[in-house]
Amino acid sequence: MAQKQAAHPGASKELFTLLSQVGLVGKHIAQDLSRAGLIDILGTTGEINVQGETLKKLDEIANQTFLKVFDQSGLVCALASEEMEKPILFPENWPQAKYMLLFDPLDGSSNTDCNMPLGAIFSVVKSASNDRMPTEDDLVRKGTEQVAAGYLLYGSSTMLVYTVGQGVQGFTLDPGIGEYLLSHQQVQIPVRGKVYSVNEGNYHKWATGTKQYVDYLKISDTATGRPYSGRYSGCLVADVHRILLDGGIYLYPGELTRPEGKLRLLYEANPLAWVVEQAGGRASTGTLRILDVEAKQLHQRVPLIIGSAGDVRDAEEFTQGRRTT
Ligand code: AFP
Predict the structure, then answer these.
(1) How far is residue 173's CA from residue 53's CA, in Å, rounded to a whole number?
(2) Which domains does the chain have, with CATH numbers?
């Protein structure tokens, strides 16, 4: 990280300290998860979150861990989370702290009780003005305005993967020494893959173009490497991480009765889109580059098609009706 900082004059020391603090969140959560069946952290809290979803105990623990690590760090002047309707503002940190952190503290929470992969996704933007303390509206920014973005993956090992706009770096947590070591330098996503990742249980809800694209992936054709294999874990981070390393495509498309899709723009789609683009891939709504989507609300949803550039281009052609086979 220090090397990257030296090579990137736009990325300040505070930004890299902030990324290290995200790593610290990952250490806490990874430790909790390693004992999840032994301590009382599985199951639900009995509450419904701002997204209308049942809150898992681990959602709450992960959110609190982010808050604890950051609220007294002096590094951020605002925090926004999937689990909180309103952001938390820290006027006491402003103007020294110019960064604002948006995050999904626990991605894939349906996986908590069955020992499957989980993640966290984060996006960092700078306060919009030097003259005044940011407001909630200042957090609602286009993906192109991110200054750092990435994710934590709690899989068979814990990883921190990030970009500050100079490629993608991946660090693996060595639990023996409690440190992250650089394991994936300048990650490059293949131009095409052999895997598609989508909740096919929603097939009947999709528009024709999406159905035709997914049908196309299953037709045997050696020239284009089809049929693709289906791989879907229910954890966006894990599915996108696989695709980042091996190529392929992840889709959470808009649906006929829910054209905006399920995933959140500011703290799910935007950070992953920037990571994947920085690795040479592509991220789209089907008609628009994710990073160019106009941000209007903190918890805004967006359709997401992300992965290898060649595969995402194919999907765009199908969803735009420019191709049917
Ligand atoms: P949470 O962030 O609420 O855990 O949701 C998980 C998720 O956003 C993403 O990780 C999955 O890819 C997707 O939702 C799974 O949704 P379905 O259960 O509808 O397939």
Answers:
(1) 30
(2) 2-184 (3.30.540.10), 195-319 (3.40.190.80)
CA atoms within 13 Å, Cβ hemisphere of 234:
11
pLDDT, tens digit, 9 for 90 and up, residues 86-129: 999 999 998 899 999 999 999 999 898 899 999 999 999 998 88
Mutate which of 29, 235, 265, 299 to test ligand 1's pocket (most atoms within 8 Å of Cβ)? 235
Query: What are 87's two structure tokens?
Result: 């952001």
Question: Which H or E run contains 25?
Answer: helix 13-34
pLDDT tier, 45 (very low <50, low <70, confident <90, very high otherwise): confident
Per DSSP, 205 falls in state: G
The answer to pTM > 0.90 is yes
Mutate to test the pocket of ligand 1, among 60, 61, 110 (most ligand atoms within 8 A of CB): 110
Centroid of ligand 1 to alpha carbon of 111 (angstroms): 9
pLDDT tens-digit readout, 118-131: 999 999 999 888 88
Q: Kindly list the distances between the CA atom of residue 43 and the CA atoms of 38, 53, 61, 101, 294, in Å, as whole numbers in the listed order.
A: 13, 13, 12, 27, 36
The predicted structure's pLDDT at residue 6: 64
Q: What is the DSSP string of 56-121?
A: EHHHHHHHHHHHHHHHTTSSEEEEEETT-SS-EE-GGGTTT--EEEEEEEEETGGGGGGT--EEEE
Q: From the CA of 19, how far away is ligand 1's center (Å)?
A: 24
